[in-house]
Amino acid sequence: QTRSSGINAEYAEHLKNTGRVELPSWCDLVKTAPHKEMCPYDQDWYYIRAAAVARKVYLRPGRGVGGLSKAFGTKAHRG
Question: Residue 21 pLDDT more than 80?
Answer without folding.
Answer: yes
